Backbone:
């Protein structure tokens, strides 16, 4: 490995779990560590690409030389992706995007009162970023999505690939405690539009990122 398979390409990577604010001191998020997306950014850079990493808050340090765009919410992420996608050749959407966001964000801290033994939080669907990307995608651009599933991993992955007009979907089973969210290892199945699927062995996210980048390079051919 180590060939400059993405030399001259511009690659946009998203990583981490989005934060949906309820009030100035609280937010909803998920278990994503950002490790998979950061590993993809590093691997793409090693393959010669110019990399932009749009990242939700994580504990990780971005690879040197990568342009970092920090975001918090799904709305921020949507804006950053849609703004930068046209100038990139590939988008790898590894961020764990919230499915729902609060309908309203309180500008002051939400208080307990004697009257509110129950507190009802109203959520609405977040914008589907990859669906919006599909609408502006050119034939020369490659898009890759991730699917974290707990059941029917392949069937759900194939549905996502179609509905989001992706060139590749990376499906992983997050119901398994030994892989996925937070860990350093993963096992994924690459799903392609022609119905081809390819399951990796259980290995480090760094190795999976290199295989993914190699596959992205193939998709340009
Ligand atoms: O539908 P689901 O969230 O499982 O799809 C996963 C893929 O779609 C991931 O690549 C994720 O980054 C992306 N996504 C998105 N916009 C959303 C939710 C997920 O682009 N609102």
Residues:
């Amino acid at each position: 490995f180590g060939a400059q398979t993405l030399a001259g390409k511009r690659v946009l990577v998203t990583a981490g779990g989005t934060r949906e604010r309820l009030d100035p001191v609280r937010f909803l998020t998920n278990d994503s560590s950002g490790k998979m997306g950061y590993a993809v950014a590093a691997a793409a850079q090693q393959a010669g690409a110019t990399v932009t990493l749009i990242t939700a808050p994580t504990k990780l340090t971005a690879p040197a030389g990568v342009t970092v765009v920090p975001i918090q919410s799904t709305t921020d992420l949507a804006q950053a992706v849609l703004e930068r996608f046209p100038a990139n050749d590939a988008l790898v959407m590894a961020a764990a995007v919230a499915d729902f966001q609060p309908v309203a964000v309180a500008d002051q801290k939400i208080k307990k009162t004697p009257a509110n033994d129950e507190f009802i939080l109203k959520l609405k669907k977040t914008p589907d970023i990859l669906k919006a990307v599909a609408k502006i995608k050119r034939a020369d651009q490659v898009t890759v999505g991730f699917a974290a599933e707990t059941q029917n991993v392949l069937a759900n992955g194939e549905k996502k690939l179609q509905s989001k007009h992706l060139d590749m979907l990376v499906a992983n089973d997050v119901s398994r405690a030994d892989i996925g969210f937070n860990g350093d290892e993963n096992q994924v199945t690459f799903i392609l539009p022609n119905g081809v699927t390819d399951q990796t062995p259980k290995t480090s996210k760094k190795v999976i990122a290199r295989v993914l980048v190699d596959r992205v390079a193939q998709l340009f051919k």
In short: The radius of gyration is 18 Å. DSSP finds five helices and 14 strands in the chain. The pocket of cytidine-5'-monophosphate is lined by residues 74, 93, 95, 97, 126-130, 145-147, 160 (CB under 6 Å).
